[in-house]
Amino acid sequence: MDKQKKILIVEDSKTISTVLLQVLKSEGYEVVWADNGVDGIRLAKSEKPDLILLDLLLPKLNGYEVCNAVKRNNATRHIKVLIISTLGDKDHVEKAKLCGAKNFMKKPYDLQDLLTEIKNII
Asked: Which ranges of the chain have pLDDT less than 70?
């Protein structure tokens, strides 16, 4: 059996995070959660997740800053980033790709689509 894939959720909404945690765990993923950008970067370094689900509107550091920090650090730059945000216009999607995100999903999203996207990425 494959090693359990680990996903780091960086999301300040407790409601969204709780749902994601339950769904991802039921799908067999190991899940870690941070509710702000600073903790997100710290956990990316210490936990070495396979994927980061990253919100853009976060306390302390925004999603782009987190993405840039993760991608600039040799220890974490291999980690794939999926940005999930209500900010879904073209500029934000472009900026997300520029900072190294693998893909972008707009909130609200369909959970099944999200799970499919996660499987495609990792």
From this structure: 1-2
